[in-house]
Amino acid sequence: MNGRKILIGISGGIAAYKVCEVVSTLAKAGTQVRVILTDAAQEFITPLSLATLSRHPAYTDRDFWQPTHSRPLHIELGEWAEILVIAPLTANTLAKLAGGLADNLLTNTVLASRCPILLAPAMNTDMWEQLAVQRNWQQVLTDERFCGIQPSSGILACDRVGAGRMAEPSEILAHIESLLHTGGKRDLKGKRVLISAGGTREHLDPVRFIGNPSSGKMGIALAVAALHRGAAVTLVHTMDEALLPRGVVRAIAVVSAEEMREAMLSCFPEADVTVMAAAVADVRPRDSVSEKLPKRSLPSSLALEVVPDILAELGSLKQAGQKLIGFAAQTGDIVKPALEKLERKKLDAIAANPIDKIGAGFNSDTNQAILINSHGKQVEVLPCSKLEMAHRLYDFVLGE
Ligand code: CTP
Description:
Layout: E1 5-10, H1 16-28, E2 32-37, H2 47-54, H3 61-65, H4 73-80, E3 83-89, H5 91-99, H6 105-111, E4 117-121, H7 125-129, H8 131-141, E5 146-148, E6 152-155, E7 161-165, H9 169-182, E8 192-197, E9 202-205, E10 208-210, H10 217-228, E11 232-237, E12 250-253, H11 257-267, E13 273-276, E14 283-285, E15 304-306, H12 310-317, E16 323-330, H13 335-344, E17 349-354, E18 366-373, E19 378-385, H14 386-398
Parallel strand pairs: 1-2, 1-3, 3-4, 4-5, 8-11, 8-13, 11-12, 13-16, 16-17
Antiparallel strand pairs: 6-7, 9-10, 14-15, 17-18, 18-19
This protein binds cytidine-5'-triphosphate.
């Protein structure tokens, strides 16, 4: 995000305080951030807070009506921004956007710009559910320029529990990162994407298992990137439900390789794009029991058996038009073994990860890879966030 230009518009709601974290995180990442506050926003947070966090004076309607610039401020800002984020978006500002009205700096800048606009509404549940508000929301989303982050449900500042809570800063930041990458294109719209995520566990008894340190972060990033590109996403995963992104069509929790196999096989026929990002345990104990074994009864050695290769099975079932992508976690020479896997498992593409490199191993927030497709094309992706890696992988596969 370093050096990119993000304009944040804040309208008047209590969720405005959460936007401070978005601005702060962006500025710390080296992003150029400019902020516009509406008059109502200033009842909740001050221009000084935002100026301090963004390392730049924050703009208000005062700057609009009493300009110190030679060019109109809304034109300057509209041309400057790569992405405009309006968070929180109030019912009032939403109504203005739906009607194409422009009566302050923020709404004039919307009309004077052409960049993608990310909208994060926040309001009381009754307000959010009003027919007029819902109509306005649907109306703005018909314009491809607008990308909406549905408010979540939870305890609201008015003590109600219901829909209307603004998306968390981390979710807004992920959307910004995606928009910077895609420019707002939704090239997976109408496509069904199936992703496996996490690490399987092969239990010896209820408390002991063979597993691996996979965090599932790469699989989650693939799901988030696919959602942001408009896909209907199914996630077969081994993670805590709380870690899953909002908006997946279906999430199937599994533990073992066999459970993951069954879930993947049942969803695969419907999928346009399938990505096997899970770290599947390669072997399992040949014998397992459902009651916990006392220490004294633990075997001194374990008889193991190989688990089914899910990806290879999917490859053998693949139909024309379906895309199948795998990962190869490797040390040393990463290309040769990845090429062998690509061919043997009948994949369309594979991401070869050098897990011996810093910032590319299990549980890391970053990744690096060489992407290889079935036509022999290779693209190196230098260390980047897992969300960026996910986008680069979709670019690679969809651009074939
Ligand atoms: N995979 C799978 N089922 C398995 C094992 C792996 O579907 N039982 C998938 C992984 O999700 C990943 C790819 O296959 O997409 C990894 O290929 P694999 O050959 O299993 O890699 P390694 O386990 O690293 O193989 P090796 O140790 O032989 O290099």
